[in-house]
Amino acid sequence: MQNSPSKIRVLTPQVEIQGNKYLSCLWMAVQKFAVEVDTFSTDKDNKYDLTQVRAGRKIGNIIHIHWINGFCNFKDYSGNIWISRVGTLFLSLKNLLALSLLKLKGYKIVWTIHNSISHGSKVMLRERLFRRGLSSLCSDILVMSEYSRQQFSQIYGRTHRVHIVPHGNYIGAYPNEISLADARNKLDIPVDAKVFLHIGLIRGYKGINDLIDAFKQIDDNNCFLLIAGACLDADLRQEIELAAKNDDRVRLHLEFINDSEIQIYINACNWVVLPYKKILNSGSALLALSFSRPVIVPQRGSLTELIIHGQQGFTYVSDDELPQMLKLALSTPQNSWQQMCEQAYTLAKKFDWSDIGAQLYQIYQKSA
């Protein structure tokens, strides 16, 4: 059955959708308009093979890609560096060729840029070449901030049809009924304690070791640091466990946090700390704001446009300032902290998915 001319049909990789709350919110928002979202029809053993896109040409077909790591980084488990390099080159060229052919067939290609380079990428040069090739094929490029737009334009020299579509909030996306007292009871933390939290997948660039070291400079037995999130890097996990050793105030929960458990960790804390070494966008910051929690973040990437020092949290320039920011947070009066919580939630509400869905729909309309 053919789509009507007013219907826009968007194809997106199946591998990206699974378990991704950001995408489920995004697609739900845009489907409220005349947009149908479907997934690539791919071989399950070749889920990053864009030659597997088999959907027939229909009016307004758009391919929307988000994270590109799997499409240009070949995973070789033999440890042979040459197999990895050749495999990556072949995969990248194969997928760029596939996208070129799809474009010739009438598909419009849209790419949302989430990272400057994929987290953990070991083939940065080849990935940058893939990014350059992909950007030349796209009808539209989506970024999440003015900082991201300028960075993209400087690196790839493209300014035409580069749109700022912000990251939406997570208000209502996760359960949020538990009180601070009940959350702390579940985590065996005193109700009158001061609690810092880092939540999200643990990676090297997120500065967890620095956070633990900074926290250890606090001389307060009624202050706690929670680290919650899966750590897939065995070496990094060992480093974090070693750093936290001999300090019972540091509580490690280095496993996947279920959707129903997120509220426990965030509602148990006073502050969410995200000491990124490098960052472009931060969904974790929006997550914290959506739960009315102020954040402590560096002035890096899009965070410079999101958080105002002293309003939705505290910001710092140099990593050496992190201990000072933790102590500043601890010295914040209760009424000032409550005001920051209110300002955090007020800011989160501005990133409403309905507005984002409408903006994306308009971009699709002009692209299709």
List the helices and strands and how they pair.
Blueprint: E1 8-12, H1 14-17, H2 21-30, E2 35-39, E3 61-65, H3 69-72, H4 81-104, E4 108-112, H5 124-137, E5 140-143, H6 146-156, E6 162-164, H7 180-186, E7 194-199, H8 208-215, E8 223-228, H9 234-244, E9 250-253, H10 259-268, E10 271-273, H11 283-290, E11 295-298, H12 303-306, E12 313-316, H13 322-330, H14 334-350, H15 353-367
Parallel strand pairs: 1-2, 1-3, 3-4, 4-5, 5-6, 7-8, 7-10, 8-9, 10-11, 11-12
Brief overview:
This protein is of the alpha/beta class and 368 residues long.
Reading the helices and strands in chain order gives EHHEEHHEHEHEHEHEHEHEHEHEHHH
Distance between the termini: 19 Å
- Biggest sheet details: 6 strands, parallel
The helix/strand class is alpha/beta
